[in-house]
Specification:
Radius of gyration: 24 Å
Helix content: 25-40%
Number of domains: 2
CATH superfamily of the largest domain: Acetylglutamate kinase-like
Number of strands: 17
Strand order of the largest sheet: 3-5-2-1-8-10-11-9
Strand content: 15-25%
Oligomer: single chain
């Protein structure tokens, strides 16, 4: 049994869905379970509709919604679906009627809550999977459309709901096992779930990867395949460095670190359920299915290159807190992190001294509220337009000479923060945003001047 997750670019139009059907057909003997995202850009478009309606612009929101409907019908009809009043046509019409009602309510109330955002965002996946199910049927594969909200049970933290694993694992087994036993291919929405009371939730942007891993872990699948629009995990973003290479195999820990620090091939939380059950994950290209992609496994083989990949995030804010009152006092860090916890803002990189702490955040939505609280502790200085660069490799902490290579490549740049030691597999530092391309290219040239052919292509 395998779980195949297809992202937005893999289901974005009729041509992509036809290609997807061929990929699934080639894997029918492996008992595939399909997890699909919304058609590319649909989620953003639906949220734009909601935001427009909440500003009281009812007709403008309805016009935007009509364009989304037109696109879905157009691509379905290219596939020979929804050309008459079949079940897909009726489903699409029903969903857009429900969304029109939501838009009218939003325009009247002029208030957009996280709960309503999740309700509207969920329609993207529900639309794409309805079309995809019929595509598979038309290509001779017995597919059955599932409702992820019957299986993915979450808390009520709308837009970033937490999965309740005991309830979810049990529901997945109860819902999917009979379908698989009957010889059918389940088609499942990524990204969405529901609370115990039945309210629709989403599990965060990029959550379709997470859904696939949750299903794979619950059913103890043999493999979890993340189908995207790149050949696998690369040594860095090829849009930044055209000489970037594909990594053949990487460990769970390395992949999670890369994902957290900006590599956008997979969602960071994807790794967690797979690690729990030691299920391998393959990252594959739906546009080039013949490529072997990247294997993510519990323990990767030894590599001659100490650094396996370079990840980065831009648009970072550095917050510096200093207080001489805290000299020799305990509880300084606790007080600081309690404030970030209260506002639910995660921290990426931390550097400390006896009386000062520097840390980075990439979510600035509650920043000024946080600063107001921090000023009760000490002096606060904020610096924006920063970037985090993270060099990742197995056992970096214990390999001599790595820092010499890294900082030799960055000798002309001002480095604001450095973190090594908290993790044995990364070296992280912070620089100015405008020096990011120069830094990444310089690092890549230095680190990958020679590569281990067993690990890199």
């Amino acid at each position: 049994m395998i779980v195949c997750k297809f992202g937005g670019t893999s289901v974005q139009d009729a041509e992509a869905m036809t290609r997807l059907a061929q990929i699934i057909s080639a894997r029918c003997k492996q008992q595939p379970i399909i997890v699909a995202s919304a058609m590319g850009k649909t989620t953003n478009q639906l949220l734009e509709v909601a935001q427009t309606a909440a500003k009281g612009k009812r007709q403008e929101a309805l016009d935007l919604l009509a364009k989304i409907k037109e696109r879905h019908l157009r691509e379905a009809q290219k596939l020979g679906i929804a050309v008459t009043e079949d079940w897909v046509y009726e489903t699409i019409n029903t969903y857009f009627k429900e969304m029109r009602d939501l838009v009218k309510g939003l325009a009247a109330l002029c208030e957009l809550t996280p709960r309503i955002m999740d309700a509207i965002a969920s329609y993207g996946e529900r639309l794409s999977t309805a079309i995809l199910t019929q595509v598979l049927e038309n290509n001779g594969m017995p597919a059955q459309l599932m409702d992820a909200r019957q299986c993915i049970i979450t808390d009520d933290n709308f837009t970033r709901a937490g999965v309740l694993f005991d309830l979810t694992d049990r529901a997945i087994v109860e819902c999917l096992r009979p379908v698989i036993k009957a010889g059918k291919i389940p088609v499942f929405q990524g990204f969405i779930g529901r609370t115990g009371s039945g309210a629709t939730t989403t599990i965060g942007r990029g959550g379709s990867d997470y859904t696939a891993a949750i299903i794979g872990a619950a059913l103890e699948a043999d493999d979890i395949q993340i189908w995207t629009d790149v050949d696998g995990i690369m040594t860095t973003d090829p849009r930044m460095v055209k000489e970037a290479r594909r990594i053949r195999v990487i460990s769970f820990d390395e992949a999670a670190e890369l994902a957290y620090f900006g590599a956008k091939v997979l969602h960071p939380a994807t790794i967690i359920p797979a690690v729990r059950k030691r299920i391998p994950v393959h990252v594959l290209n739906s546009y080039r299915p013949e490529q072997e992609g990247t294997l993510i496994t519990e323990e990767a083989p030894p590599c001659e290159n100490p650094v396996k990949a370079i990840a980065f995030k831009s648009g970072i804010t550095v917050v510096n807190v200093a207080s001489t009152r805290m000299l020799m006092a305990y509880g300084f860090l606790k007080k600081i992190f309690e404030i970030f916890d209260h506002y639910k803002v995660p921290v990426d990189v931390v550097s400390t001294s006896e009386v000062s702490v520097s840390l980075t955040v990439d979510d600035a939505s509650a920043l000024w509220d946080i600063i107001t609280e921090l000023k009760k502790i000490g002096e606060v200085n904020v610096e924006g337009s920063k970037s985090i660069i993270c060099c990742v490799g197995d056992n970096l902490k214990n390999i001599p000479g790595v820092l010499s290579i890294v900082f030799g490549a960055l000798q002309d740049l001002q480095i604001q923060m450095i973190s090594q030691g908290a993790s044995a597999i990364n070296i992280t530092f912070v620089i100015d945003d405008d020096r990011l391309p120069e830094a990444v290219r310089g690092l890549h040239d230095a680190i990958f001047a020679r590569v281990d052919p067993h690990i890199f292509v």
